[in-house]
Amino acid sequence: MAYTHGLGPCAERREGSSPSSPILKIQMKINIKVITKAKRNEIKQTGKDYKAWLTVAPIHGVANQALLELLANYFKTKKSQIKIIKGIKSKNKIIEIES
């Protein structure tokens, strides 16, 4: 990952963009602990990490799909821009969010 005009290691210039009109691709990685079978769907930030409560059970990836939808609403982005990097079958996950 390259630095682009002092924007840090998480900001990249997309291919085909000129220096006069930068379109930036920003990636953010977060650690999140997921609690399933909860009474409500909610996300809270605890320090630098996040905690998510989901009403669904962790069966056949349903909880992961619900988590992606909840994160998309929380960060106001599309579900397709959110990926589970680590922890598909774990309650502790690392999520990558692009915008």
Task: Briefly say what this structure is.
With 99 residues, this protein is mainly beta. Helices cover 14% and strands 37% of the residues.
What does this structure look like?
This protein has about 100 residues and is mainly β. It has one domain (about 30-99): Conserved Hypothetical Protein Mth637, Chain: A. The chain is about 15% helix and about 35% strand. Strands 1, 2, 3, 4, 5 and 6 form a six-stranded mixed sheet that branches. Residues about 1-10 have low confidence and may be disordered.
Feature tags:
mainly beta; 6-stranded mixed β-sheet; 1 helix; Conserved Hypothetical Protein Mth637, Chain: A; disordered N terminus; 6 strands; 99 residues
| CATH topology heading | Conserved Hypothetical Protein Mth637, Chain: A
Span of the ends, CA to CA: 16 Å
| Rg, Å, rounded | 16 Å
CATH architectural arrangement: 2-Layer Sandwich
Quickly count the domains.
1
Uncertain regions: pLDDT < 50 for 5+ in a row? 1-9
Question: What is the strand tally?
Answer: 6
Structural class: mainly beta
Shape: globular
Q: What is the ordering of alpha helices and beta strands?
A: EEEEHEE
Major sheet characteristics: 6 strands, mixed
